[in-house]
Amino acid sequence: MAAKPAGLFINTLSMLSATLKNLKHGKLDPRFGLPILLVATAMAPLGAYAGKFLPKVYVMWVFVSFLFYSATVMVFFRPKSRRNTGNNIVEGPVIGGVAGFLGGLLGVGGGGIISPALIMLGHEPRKVATTTALVVFFSSLSGFLTYWGTGNLDWVLLLWVSIPAIAGGWVGMHIMHFKMSSEQVKKVIGVILYLIALKTLVNVL
After folding, report:
1. CA 102, CA 60: separation in Å to the nearest integer?
2. Cα distance between residue 202 and residue 205, in whole Å
3. What dihedral angle (degrees, nearest 10) is formed by the CA atoms of 30, 34, 36, 37?
4. pTM above 0.85, yes or no
5. Which residues contact 152 (CB under 8 A, 6 or more apart)?
6. pLDDT tens, residue by residue, 124-176
7. Rounded (5°) CA angle 44-128-51
8. Which CB contacts under 8 angstroms, 24+ apart, belong to 115-118?
9. Can you say how many angstroms the Cα of residue 120 is from the centroid of all Cα atoms in its chain?
């Protein structure tokens, strides 16, 4: 039981650290990220409720298939860049809604859905990564607070993982913004998606 809240705690701190660094350097576009965040947050409870009625194993297989497809696109193909980099008032909330619903249904983070969907639509990978960090921070914080409310926390373990989590989020975003090209960021996201897909597949099997 301690592993789940610890994982959420690590996600919360690392993504908080990453988001603060993005804000400090002006890399986060709130007008782009907030609609995704708000709709994803609203849809997550609906997904959790729907999980009582839908066969989760079939939905999980669809999710794994999507991850493998998205990872392949990220690593081996180059999605067409958007000419209009402005905010789309429709696609952001739609992607956030799907990510929030599936995240609540499957008990997974929405980053594995938001990142590939936005990149395949032609959004710049580093902009996508900063937006995903913001969304994952709030979703992880919500999950962690739920565990905190039940009292199932190992505070000694959380203390030990807190500093590496904060440092990891900060250093990771620094490397992404200042040491990597957009194409490299896209490929790294693809590799991460492969790993998430494999982990999810193991859980399904």
Report:
1. 9
2. 5
3. 120
4. no
5. 1, 2, 5
6. 888 888 988 888 888 778 777 777 876 767 777 778 878 888 888 888 888 88
7. 20
8. 115/189, 115/193, 116/66, 116/67, 116/70, 116/71, 116/73, 116/74, 116/189, 116/193, 117/70
9. 15
